[in-house]
Amino acid sequence: MIRAALCLAALSIGGAALAQGSLSELERAADEGVPAAQRALAERLLSGDGLLPNYARAAELLRAAAAAGDPAAQNRLGQMLHDGLGVPQDRAAALRWFASAAEAGQPEHLHDYATVLEADDPARAAELYARAAETGHVPSMTSLGVLLQDGRGVAQDPAAARLRYEAASAAGDMRATNNLGLLYVRGDGVAQDYAKAFALFTEAAEAGSRQAMTNLGVMYENGFGTAVDEARAAELYRMGAAGPVAGSDPGLTRDPRLLPVLPDALDSLRQSAQAGDPIAEYQLALLLAEQGDFAALREAATLFRAAAEAGHGPSMANLGRLYFLGLGVPQDFVLGQMWLLLAQRAGTDTAALALAFGKRPTNEQIAEAQSRAMARLE
């Protein structure tokens, strides 16, 4: 059992403060078979909004709501079946649910169905994208433009692709802005215009499109639409490849409430840690983990575990990281995932760790981690 002494009295998970009453009402409505409540509760279980993530339970709720005819639940269940998240992967069943959801005509559902069909049936995907685009769904405008540009599922028509890209770009879709720039670079459906392409790539890059940053780097390197600037090109290439990357280690999680430990306080810190003070255990573990040698990491893992068992969120996050990396403990993705889930439940921001390590466990390992985490909270 994890003692809650150090947990925040009111948790904030995923940036949304949770009112316990509203969750109770939602759970009661879901138990009574209200499809919208079942879907809403499932979304909280998927995101960890106010309660521990539980993909299997979310899938059960979505299946009930989907069977009752809720299009949004049908679409979400299709996504889970397609990805094998919380349920065995079943592409055929996923397509059936995507199709059911799309029958209601919501542009988002038409778009999602088209996306999963695109590789095997681009003609049908193009039809669905077109229906969604007619309602003003911006991502569908861009996706239809890509099919028109490439001639997949439809006759190749760069000029028609340009019209879709222009409409989506005007609505703020930077993928469309970048693709429009590529048309001007190549002269596809438009007169070749490096200056225009340069302006479009600049707009998309300044809005954060990493693909556009790379393309803008090419323009600077070759002097297309601008003067040659190899230094600027190199900078843009770095920016295009930068940002949070899945698999990269974000390092140790700090507790923003605590000040750094002064060197002359180490002796008293160790004494407090030996006496079972969770904060001292965490702070000492942090110092040991930063040393990086095996003995120090092993002691750090022991201390992080003690503080984690006392309910300290950052210690849970750090212990999970050690398990994922096999530092000071045997590598164990189930335990790593379990401690990250518990850290999130304790109010610690685990987004960077989830990005770094989230794809390492299998769906089966994730389900086991969720089960173990729930058992610890009972």
Automatic annotation (TrEMBL):
InterPro entries: Sel1-like (IPR006597), Sel1_AlgK (IPR050767), TPR-like_helical_dom_sf (IPR011990). SMART domains: SEL1. The keyword Signal applies. It comes from the Bacteria. The keyword 4Fe-4S does not apply. Residues 1-19 form the signal peptide. Pfam families: Sel1. Keywords: Signal. Gene3D superfamilies: Tetratricopeptide repeat domain (1.25.40.10). Transmembrane segments: none annotated. PANTHER family: ERAD-ASSOCIATED E3 UBIQUITIN-PROTEIN LIGASE COMPONENT HRD3, SEL-1-LIKE PROTEIN. This is TPR repeat.
